[in-house]
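Hi L.,

You mentioned the student needs an example of a multi-chain input paired with its predicted structure. This one should do, with 1040 residues in total across all chains.
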Amino acid sequence: MNVSNNIGKFDWLTIFIYFALITIGWINIYSASLTDTSVAFFDFSQIQTKQLVWIGLSFIIIVFVLAIDSKFYERFSSLIYLIAIASLLGLFVFGSTIAGQTAWYVFGDFRIQPSELVKAATALAMAKYLSDIQTNIHTFIDQLKAFTIIAIPIVLVLLQPDPGSALIYFAFLFPLFREGMHFVYLLLGFFAAVLFTTTLAFGHEWVIFGVIAISLLVYYKYRKNRPNLFKYLFIAASCIIFSLSVEYVFDHVFKQHHRDRFNIILGKEVDIKGVGYNTNQSEIAIGSGGWTGKGWTEGTQTKGNFVPEQHTDYIFSTVGEEWGFVGSFVVVALFVFLILRLLYLAENQNSTFSRVYGYSVASILFVHFFVNISMVIGLFPTVGIPLPFLSYGGSGLWAFTILLFIFIKLDSQKHVNR
Amino acid sequence: MRKLLLYSLVIFTGILFTARLLYLQVFDSSFQQMSEINAVSVVYDYPQRGYVYDRHGKLLVANQPSYDVMVIPRNIKKLDTLEFCKMLHIEKAELNRILEKARIYSPRLPSVVLPQLTKDEYAYLQEKMYKYPGFYIQKRTLRDYQVTHSGNILGYIAEVNPKTIEENPYYQMGDLIGVTGVESQYEEILRGVKGVKYIQKDRFNRDIGAYKEGVFDTLPKPGQDITLSIDETLQAYGELLMKNKRGGIVAIEPETGEILALVSAPGYDPALLVGRQRSKNYTALYQDSIAKPLYDRGLLAEYAPGSTFKIMNALIALEENVIDENNTFSCNHGYSYGRGRKMGCHSHPSPVNLNMGIYESCNAYFANIYRRIIEKYPTPQEGIDVWSNHLKSFGLGGFLGNDLPIGRPGKIPTAAYYNKIYNFPTYKWFSTATISNAIGQGEVITTPIQLANMTAAIANRGFYITPHVIKEIDGKPMDDPTYTEKKFTTVHPQYFEPIIEGMFDVYNKGTASRLQVEGIEICGKTGTAENFTKIDGKKTQLTDHSIFIAFAPKDNPKIAIAIFVENGYWGGRYAGRIAGLMIEKYLKGSITRTDMEEWVLSRSLEEEYAKPLSGKPFRINQ
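Structure written out for the whole complex:
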């Protein structure tokens, strides 16, 4: 099938938002990485130049993604998933360790982080599995299979260790819920994420204390309904056991460099000037922007490199400082519209495969968007995950591009021979 | 329903983020300041503060270097506390307290360890400072006073307070600002404008160059010198004469309105408010609630003007045409008015005309002419208001607008005031109810500077120029119209001559006849003001205030002066003598009335001042 025949069928609104976000991203990466204006513009050692190359390459990727027959994705999704898992496993043999994380394949000057691409593969596999006529998501055995699809990459990513990326896989609970899974799983997933993060951030003592305190409160509130004491004890005990096991794994299974990496991401180590340095600096940068910001490349916080990782995970703080409330609001609004648009498109798909996939794309983008900006504006603890399309990084940009454009392709074919 | 979960989560997140961004970026301005402190460091270049000279070019206030021991807590290495404390002459506990405070303020910004070391201490410390990383010595400029008097005029400089910082964005924490006197009034001229350099910092607080290529940087503008109209010799002499006495002297050059001397007794040495002991000394001065050395009596003290005020009534009576200089009134040891009330008077010949009324200071004469002024009009209200407006044209009863930042309005009563206190129209009141105004008691209140200005207006025969201490700024004569324009009195020039003759006769044959100074034609008027205090809630009369106004020479006057000596008894006793001495000192440069000088210098009124505080019964006017 030819790309040019389908141009009218692509969702141009989504594509427009994609280009808007990419452009905003590059403008801010340029400012955030600006150290000395005398450096030549096309110096490949410069971050902004590199990102320009990544953007150029992703356009080529887009053409490929759109050119491939949409049936290919459905038909080969299992294979793609297996290859993706293999690429994660391969890291333990061929991967390079950078900053304590065995997450990269290095080819000369280029580095590829497969875990970014695995998200798209998992989304395809999940869509394939749920659209299978024999799958009944209400049965326990099928739920277990669905969870296995998610759990395999989570475990492999955690071992790198990259807890931030692992957190993203909780996004798949949304399409599962959408397809009929019981609400309890969503709650469980939520609690697991909370327990996981809080245990590592504050230690199991506080988590156990919190769990007991909440249980007692809930029990006290509903005591007149003669609650099933056993059920309460079970839930509380599960939480405590989960918390303890997280800590056990962290302390005894992981090696020191793994722990360091976790601590960095949880903001324990990188906090060079005390608790909350990153968040604090990021809040100062954003807060100093005012209504309209200090102007492009005029951000004093950005220039002074006060915010760590500013061109990657904290890119939104540059937006906040240099473009002010107006700029930040535009970015937030673009994301909200993009995700809502994707959800709308997903709901209008004829095939279950396309719907689940579209829903997964929207969910993954949402979790990234939610966790990243919450962290940058001080509503969430430090978890190192990028802001899609804006953060610096080739693998991330490509992964999100592929993720998004597969769906645009699927969407363009929704009326064809179904 | 299941479809809606993620939709609503996304929309909710969008709203949550927008609200949070609004709060961070728009409503909470503290982040803006934090960002400035954080990323751009500002280095100030303080210009030298301008010098202050007296009218003859004598240097009064210069600058001196001062050395502060500073610390940047995070740079401190292993510290031999014992040796360090010995070197700085402080206790170990004290040092630890200071360092802890500095650390809390900021580990990476400088704090003061010991302020204002002398040059000698600096020389000694400078050699050893290299041994103590994290500590260094910073040079500052402090005031260096060349005279030990005039504290009330010169004022002082101190660290700016948080309120001023809030009101005036020029000032930063730790900046110095003029607090009172000339330092405060001419702050912007004296201080100049500090230069500013903005330096972009990175997160390790390292300089990474000028912020925005230095477009915001400014060069310092040096402070300008000022010349005061004060005559340093006269001022010093005035403070010497007022030693052990309380009160104020204000001397003005009538022709220009320039203040020649502004003495407040007791005064203080301005050097007390500089250096390491500043805070201790200030507290001591501030807490002296009895002598009140920080209270400028020349500008702030409001006294009844006593008999000196009679001159004003005489001028108004002539202007209002209710008497001429030949009208006589009889005086039988006083003036009786209504139902057996009588205002007493001392022994002197009778009947009394204008000239004699002034030189004998006859109460009866002035009571008569005062009633004529008020009763010229159909109602006492109208009369009082006419009278009051004449007085106000002499600068009485309101702020003078002189160029020192403090002052008091005094009081000249109006019809409205009497209507209020007598509850008009329920009750009526008549001129006799206000008769004390005739002799400068009662409701009339003036400050010494108002009285001196009034004297200058008389010396000028009908105008005054707002008194001021500024003469030149940066070598150029002051040209502020406020201090160069003539303000004319409502009493016309022709009425001044008979009054001035009377004041001249005060010296020739009147109440100041023993105070003559050879070769100088002085015109003056004595005043003796009753005054009261409260002891244990009971109104108690104290010894009278001694008051004197004078100007000289009679023709083409060069100096007009007003003197208050608290509880100095009659006008000629202290104030009159001091007036003669001051005038002679200013006009001749030396003193021939050494007998008078000796008398004043050898007297102390401290005993008098101790009486009401002793708790024992005491006698007054002895």
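You could point out the following to them. Chain B touches chain A at residues 2-3, 5-7, 9-11, 13-14, 16-18, 20-22, 24-26, 28, 30-32, 34-36, 38-40, 200-203, 208, 211-212 (CB under 8 Å). Residues 2-27 of chain B form the longest helix (26 residues).

Best wishes,
N.
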